[in-house]
Amino acid sequence: MKHLKAVFGNDTRQFGMIFALIALIVFFQVRTNGLLLTPTNVINLFQGNSYILVLAIGMVLVIIAGHIDLSVGSVAAAVGISVAIAMRDWSLPWGLAILFGLLIGAIIGAWQGFWVAYVGIPAFIVTLAGMLIFRGLNQKIGDSDSIPVPNGYQVIGRGYLPEFGPLTGYNNLTLIIGLALIAAIVTGALRTRRNQRKIGADMAPMWTVVVRLLLICGAILAVTLLFASGRRGTSFPVSGLILGVLVLIYSFVSSRTVIGRHVYAVGGNKHAAELSGVKSKQINFLVMMNMSILAALAGMMFVARSTASGPSDGVNWELDAIAAVFIGGAAVSGGVGTVVGSIVGGLVMAVLNNGMQLLSVGADDTSIIKGLVLLLAVAFDVYNKSQGRPSLIGRLTSGRRDRPAVEQPAPADPARNISETVHTEA
Amino acid sequence: MSAAPALLEMRQITKEFPGVKALSDVSLTVRRGEVHAICGENGAGKSTLMKVLSGVYPHGTYDGDIVFEGEIVQFKDIRASERAGIVIIHQELALIPELSIAENIFLGNERARGGRIDWVGTNRRAIELLRHVGLREDPETPIKTIGVGKQQLVEIAKALNKDVKLLILDEPTAALNEEDSAHLLDLIEGLRERGITSIIISHKLNEIERIADSVTIIRDGRSIETLDVAAGGVDEDRIIKGMVGRSLESRFPEHTPRLGETFFEVQDWTVEHPQVAGRLVCKGSSFHVRRGEIVGFAGLMGAGRTELMRSIFGRSYGTLLGGRMILDGREVTLKNVSQAIDAGIGYVTEDRKVLGLNLLDDIKTTTTAARLKKIAKHLVVDRNAEFAAADGYRRSLRTKTPSVEEGVAKLSGGNQQKVVLAKWLFAEPELLILDEPTRGIDVGAKYEIYGIIQQLADAGKGVIVVSSELPELLGLSDRIYTICEGRITGELAKHEATQENLMRLMTTTGSAAGRAATPAAGSTGATAAR
Predict the structure, then answer these.
(1) What is the 3-class SS of B213-269, one letter each residue?
(2) A174-183, B109-118, B274-283: which is most confident
(3) pLDDT greater than 70 at residue B511
């Protein structure tokens, strides 16, 4: 245990959530006699959930800023149908159609952001209205009908990385991307270490860094091989690639840029943020607008995967996205959450769904179990907080470098604990 | 009068909060049928004492005995004390704006038959109660449509309905104008004639002098003395002496100011309340700050100190109706906080946890929060520079923490305040405004924070300190302004300021302001009219 902590150290939070995911995978892998981790199934799982995970990226920012967005499913549907019509009736090339879709998303987002940020209407109300408005818009535009989309466009939902180069028995491009990722992680870790030494921050022992890198790289290698060894013609899905790029960008933006900081600051304490010069209205506007753009993208990816846009696309997506974010450790009151945590939360839900499908569990039971998982995950978190212990999920995924709570004995009396932390000059 | 038996006796009440002794051995005797005033500075323990009495802090959470009508009582909540006939009216009125006067009077105590409200009986009784308090309003009028003065009367009507024996009024006239205040004081006198005993907490000493029969003075959580006002010989000065009587220990680092030129000036600054149109929170305030100078602002709670400072700090409070701000000889207009920060103004908020800190943050992100762009290139935060900056302040301010990557929520009050100071030092302001910089901080940390403030002044910056603690202002400031009811009522140089004359200027209300300001202004040669 001690060694485990040494290896994962400050990052235990993210690995902890991943452990839960791994446990779930192992469970279903055993129960389905190995069906879960076949290349075909994993590719399916990714293609079938990437749009929800794209939504979760936007949703976690919305929730960190202290809002919620209920309209994402309707926005996705409205954009999906618009893009399908644009390609069918106006013969818009699919590349331009995607840009057109993103533009509609931006306009819708500006509309919702305006009401939330500048008029001051709670996002719950604005997006509840949006949910009705954009669902109606979808049906009005499409005449409540299904509209097919051209083959070229379907790449963003159904496509795979192309085959090229020598026959290795694997998809070469998938292999290259996997190896490049590993190389990037290793150099990144080395650079962090060099910088830490330079500025004199406390460093973890070398062996823990090595073990950690080995574990991460091993995992990436395994996943890469899994995707690369699929049936010829299939490989890592394009939708997974889009998701991966978005995760990298948004993780960076949320944790490393001024805007990202400001989102956390507004959600953590709006007054304090404003009195530090943060323009909270701008931040709220941007966050809501960004969500609708990502919803537009998710809608387009879904339409591409299902080859047509229909009137019931995107129903209940908001619930899946919100569930993913909260399982991933975000706080209802705002200020807490990470992009990676939300992705892991979304994958937990996806694996649950998929695993139970493979086990032929009915949709009714699946829904009940998913609901209970969400409730218990958050309840456990709340219970931990009320006990004066730091939030487990928060600690696991918050992206802040809390010392693990194990270092201090659990206090018997929460009131006394507060007094001790507040008043002792430790 | 003095022969009247005691209605209430609080004996050796001691109340501790984690780490703080709010009350120690406080005793209070209130005789039947009198108006008993309680005086003390902000934070002296008056409200805590009343919360003990009214059961907000239930029996068992404090030491000592409460004897009411000759019996020891042990209230477990507010309802228990109300059943005994003790009703407290808080400074923040507990009325529901959307409900009618009658509904508010009977809230939680509805007149009903079998669960159905008896509206006829309710309104009839309400009219009767309103007559007792001298309020001529239709009982079905919604509370939000009547003024604060009338709302106060509704509160009292509500108390009368509960068959009150002891009425406690916490700062009843703080939000009222002179006319409403006078009416309220008349009413309290009327209640006394009807045999209702009152305890009144007030900062307005002229009011106390007028209506109280006796005064108990509380200072630093102890009951200092009880004066018999009815017997005569007790005036405002006598009360002030009791309130501020503590000695000024050497709790401040040695410091000789090096004053430079005046670089910051505010003229005729007038600000309207953000919600209540027409209510002015700053009324034509003018003041100036010199380089290297520590300027104190004294005023009671609600006097408008914080409102003035926040309004100066990028209009972060209220609506600016008029006034000029001059920085380094040029008139500047700062429309929002980020412009104020860019112009070189910093503001350390009074309520650390509510306004000053994001408690979810760690030390290093808090330190850089007010001027993140200093360590960001193309909007990307340089985390090494951030760590180095935060760690630098950790060392120089001697913040006690294992690492700047700890969460700020885990720090003690003093160390949290150091982190807040680090945040504003990092922003490199020319003028730093500190609002209650040492509230809730122990003596040792206070000393260090005073040192940091003095260093900042020595570096040629201007510093404004707003504080409720007069000894702190006297020990720290080179010059002190007093504020009362949104108006600057005086300006005193360090050598001429005493707790007594500050307290007098701080409590100079309304029309008296002009009179009182004149001698003070005359002696400094610099007046508020400059």
Answers:
(1) CEEEEEECCEEEEEEECCCCCCCHHHHHHHHHCCCCCCCCCCCCCCCCCEEEEEEEE
(2) A174-183
(3) no
Alpha-carbon gap, residue B59 to A287, rounded angstroms: 49
CB contact (8 A) between residue B361 and residue A400: yes
Longest dimension (CA), chain B: 79
The C-alpha angle with vertex B452 and arms to B450 and B453, in degrees rounded to 5, equals 65
Neighbours of B342 (CB within 10 A): 15
Return the residue of B nearest to A252 by Cα. Answer: B380
For A86-114, give one letter per residue: b (16+ CB within 10 A) or e: bbeeeebebeebbebbbebbbebbebbbe
CA proximity to A337, closest of A288, A286, A406, A396: A396
Nearest C-alpha in A relative to B339: A277
Contact A79, A295 (CB under 8 A): yes
Place of tokens 């949709």: A363
- CATH of A36-157+250-381, picked from 3.90.930, 3.30.1490, 2.60.40, 1.10.3470, is 1.10.3470
Instruction: DSSP for B376-430, please give it.
Output: EETTEE-HHHHHHHHHHHHHHTT---S-TTSBGGGS-HHHHHHHHHHHHHHT--S
- Burial string for B90-125 (b: 16+ CB within 10 Å, else e) reads beebebeeeebbbbbbbeeeebeeeeeeeeeebbeb
- Confidence band, pLDDT 50/70/90 cuts, at residue A4: low
C-beta separation of B434 from B453 below 8 A: yes
Q: Do residues B285 and B266 touch, judged by C-beta distance below 8 A?
A: yes
Predicted confidence (pLDDT) per residue in A192-210, tens digit: 888 877 776 666 677 778 8
Choose the mutation target among B315, B347, B358 for the interface with A, i.e. most A CBs under 10 Å.
B358
Structure letter (DSSP) for residue B353 = I
Q: Kindly state the average pLDDT of the residues B473-482.
A: 92
Give the closest-approach CA distance of A336 to chain B in angstroms.
8
3-state secondary structure of A230: coil
CB contact under 8 A, A202 and B403: yes
Interchain CB contacts (distance < 8 Å): A and B: 129
Mean pLDDT of chain B: 85
Residue among B357, B384, B403 minimizing CB distance to A272:
B357
Predicted ipTM of the assembly: 0.76
pLDDT in tens, A92-101: 999 999 999 9
Which two three-digit tokens encode residue B307?
A: 């409102």
pLDDT tens digits for range B366-377: 999 999 888 888
Query: Residue B247 above 50 pLDDT?
Result: no
End-to-end CA distance of chain A: 27
Q: Do B387 and A199 touch (CB under 8 A)?
A: yes
Instruction: Quote the crossing angle between the two packed helices A238-256 and A39-64, to the nearest 10°.
Output: 30
Please judge whether A415 and B388 are an interchain contact, meaning their C-beta atoms are less than 8 angstroms apart.
no
Residue pair B319/B279 in contact (Cβ under 8 Å)? The answer is no
Mean per-residue pLDDT for A314-335? Answer: 90
Beta-bridge partner residues of B407: B362
In which band, very low, low, confident or very high, does the pLDDT at A22 lie, cut at 50, 70 and 90?
Answer: confident
Q: Which residues pair with B381 in a beta bridge?
A: B376
Residue B231 is predicted with a pLDDT of 79
Chain A residues at the B interface, defined by Cβ less than 8 Å, are 10, 195, 198-202, 256-259, 261, 264-265, 268-269, 271-279, 335-336, 400-403, 415-416, 418-426
Name the residue among A276, A400, A418 with its Cβ closest to that of B369: A276
Per residue in B331-340, pLDDT (tens digit) is 999 999 999 9
Domains and CATH numbers, chain B: 6-244 (3.40.50.300), 257-299+471-530 (no CATH), 344-429 (no CATH)
